[in-house]
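dumping this here before i forget
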Amino acid sequence: MKKQNSLINLTGTKHKLSIFKNSGYWFILPLAIIFVGLVCGTIYSQIGNRYDGFANIGIDFKGGSVLTVEMNGAEMQGNNREANYELIASILGQNGLSAASDQNSGSDAIIVRYQNSVIGDNNIAIDYNTSEMAEEMVAINNTVEQQVEDAFIIKYGPTIQIKANAEMINATASSDLLKKAALSVGIAMLLMLIYTAIRFDLFSGIAALSMQINDIIIMLSFVIIFRIQINSSLIAGLITIVAYSINNTLLIFDRVRDNIKLIRTQNLKLIPGEIVDTSVNQCLTRALFTSVTTLLTISILACMGIKSLSDFALPIIFGVLSGLYSSLFLAPSIWGLLMIAKQKNEIKKAKALKAQKR
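structure:
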């Protein structure tokens, strides 16, 4: 018993959490979230026009149109901004279109994105994203441009200077963007795996990479569940989470490495579960404080009421929560399980070698 508590005695760390003993239970929550995400996505894909597929894919990846409305003067600023957006959205609705997202461009322009899908008679959507329907979609966009300009002139008077311009984003461009986004995330994860394996050990690299993949999947599961739009902002969020979630994990593995050195210096038995529990509890307070501080800041952005900010902030909130959970419970548990498997394999090899010598 004394040998089992040796690392605790050396470090003086109180075990507030028993991590490794309950390692099998920590994997239940992420698996449950992934399962709920799959179920929700399946349900959404079966409902039809109301949800438009398994996930809410934005025009950055699905293809669509971008309408930029520029006005000179103060008409775009202050309280007029929401009224102007509602006017644009109503004109899109009159043409069977639906605004997917909006954002400001400086102080005198609003950018509205919408899918090239027109709701026609009997509430049936007609897809204009194909090359065969491109000319018809251009004609619809030209009509929207003219109607928006006329509506703003009626609202603010003939002296106003206004320009509406709608451009199509085709499927080829969106596919290229998706490939580049996946490549950038993949390269970032690969470099972090190499760094972690060199800086610490191979098992730490495997555990860290597994948790990065887990954080991305959990983040996407929440995106599907809450129908958050998958667009270029989400890709920025993914890269942010890949970079952020590794911090707490590396902090814990740094303590793991130091504790292993301490054990070897004292010629004590290396017990993976004891190392995991001690290392996590040493980093627990710091990990909680840094994550809570980040969550408070990102939550302010999510509560601003601007859709483009919410589409960026909400996935990051999900990713930060997942990153905190995985760095405290999952990554150390995976490292401990791999170490135990290694120890058992070494014992097995030693017994086999001993049997051969006999």
